[in-house]
């Protein structure tokens, strides 16, 4: 099942080049009062939501995919977790590029752990990215991204994929410089997620997934998740040892080689096998 959020907080089931508008299923979500429970309600109740979608999708109104504004498939992630330097060839290119390494040796993820992008950085395909500091180098980083479906702590690697609601694409936009990652990668719109969630049962094994990013038609990044240094079960285990994972938490798994700067007017054309394609426009400030 491919689930999307579109237009004015509408929920859709993606079927080829059409979307079935299944917004009515949101009525089954409980009305909550402050203080809100942790997690994104859609993901806390995803099993019930999916069952309801199955009941009403057949008679739902269809709209052409090209006519809607796609939003990130998670509205309120508690946190956006990201993996640094998780592909060897990206480590190599970082060590060869002083604008990235700033004169220090770049090691692999085992030396750094994970980092957090501000949840206020979340954007979707329709919103694109806005370059907050246009005088600085700002790079694209396309990453296979997962959304947590079941919360937990200290999740063993062997069970980790059972905690995944589904998979999507993430662009971990990054200002290059000396500041901490959580600052350089947390500007508004610097976490673009979309174009929809492919549920884990439909997506299957995430360990050998090809993906590609082009800018204005020119290939910049082309890689496969088989080359991850820490694979997805290990990332989930590592994250859950540090912080409680909640439904709707987003995990970006790391970027491969080929990172590079974007400018206003560029279009980042992203494709991940098993998910689809999304075009993301780069806006000036
Ligand atoms: Mn990244």
In short:
Helices cover 16% and strands 32% of the residues.
Topology of this protein?
Layout: E1 2-6, E2 10-15, E3 18-21, H1 41-44, H2 46-56, E4 62-64, E5 70-71, E6 80-82, H3 88-96, H4 98-101, E7 115-117, E8 122-123, E9 129-130, E10 138-140, E11 142-148, E12 164-172, E13 174-175, H5 181-184, E14 191-199, H6 200-203, E15 210-215, E16 218-224, H7 232-242, E17 250-252, E18 260-261, E19 267-272, E20 276-283
Parallel strand pairs: 6-17, 8-14, 9-20
Antiparallel strand pairs: 1-2, 1-5, 1-14, 2-3, 3-4, 6-7, 10-13, 10-18, 11-12, 11-17, 12-14, 15-16, 15-19, 19-20
Bound molecules: manganese (II) ion.
Characterize the structure shown:
The longest helix has 11 residues, at 46-56. The model has no long low-confidence stretch (mean pLDDT 97). The radius of gyration is 18 Å and the shape is globular. It has 285 residues and is α+β, with helices and mostly antiparallel strands. Strands 1, 2, 3, 4, 5, 6, 7, 8, 11, 12, 14 and 17 form a 12-stranded mixed beta sheet that branches. A 5-stranded mixed beta sheet has the order 9-20-19-15-16, with no helix packed on it. The chain has helices at 41-44, 46-56, 88-96, 98-101, 181-184, 200-203, 232-242, and strands at 2-6, 10-15, 18-21, 62-64, 70-71, 80-82, 115-117, 122-123, 129-130, 138-140, 142-148, 164-172, 174-175, 191-199, 210-215, 218-224, 250-252, 260-261, 267-272, 276-283. β2 and β3 form a beta hairpin. The site of manganese (II) ion has 7 residues, from loops.
Measure the end-to-end span. 36 Å
Proportion of residues in β-strands: 25-35%
Give the names of the bound compounds. Answer: manganese (II) ion
Number of helices: 7
Evaluate the radius of gyration.
18 Å
Count of extended strands: 20
**Please, what is the average pLDDT?**
97
Low-confidence stretches: none
Topology pattern, helix = H, strand = E: EEEHHEEEHHEEEEEEEHEHEEHEEEE
Major pleated sheet:
12 strands, mixed
**Residues in helices, as a percent range:** 10-25%
Instruction: Look at the helices and sheets and give the structural class.
Output: alpha+beta
The backbone outline, from C-alpha atoms, is globular
């Amino acid at each position: 099942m491919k689930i999307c959020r579109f237009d004015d907080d509408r929920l859709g089931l993606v079927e080829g080049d059409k979307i079935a508008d299944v917004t009515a299923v949101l009525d089954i979500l409980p009305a909550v009062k402050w203080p809100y429970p942790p997690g994104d309600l859609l993901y806390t109740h995803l099993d019930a939501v999916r069952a309801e979608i199955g009941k009403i999708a057949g008679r739902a109104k269809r709209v052409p995919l090209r006519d809607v504004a796609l939003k990130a498939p998670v509205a309120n992630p508690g946190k956006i977790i990201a993996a640094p330097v998780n592909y060897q060839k990206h480590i190599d290119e970082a060590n060869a590029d002083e604008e990235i390494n700033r004169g220090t040796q770049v090691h692999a993820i085992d030396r750094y752990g994970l980092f957090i992008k501000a949840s206020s950085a979340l954007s979707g395909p329709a919103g694109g990215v806005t370059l907050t500091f246009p005088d600085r180098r700002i790079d694209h980083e396309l990453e296979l991204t997962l959304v947590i479906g079941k919360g937990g702590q200290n999740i063993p690697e062997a069970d980790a994929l059972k905690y995944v609601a589904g998979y999507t694409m993430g662009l971990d936009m990054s200002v290059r410089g000396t500041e901490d990652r959580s600052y350089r990668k947390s500007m508004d719109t610097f976490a673009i997620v979309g174009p929809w969630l492919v549920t884990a049962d439909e997506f299957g094994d995430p360990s050998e997934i090809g993906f590609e990013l082009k800018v204005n038609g020119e290939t910049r990044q082309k890689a496969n998740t088989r080359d991850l240094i820490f694979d997805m079960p290990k990332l989930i285990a590592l994250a859950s040892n540090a912080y409680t994972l909640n439904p709707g938490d987003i995990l970006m798994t790391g970027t491969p080689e080929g990172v590079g700067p974007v400018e206003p007017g560029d279009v980042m054309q992203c494709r991940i096998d098993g998910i689809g394609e999304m075009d993301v426009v780069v806006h000036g400030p």
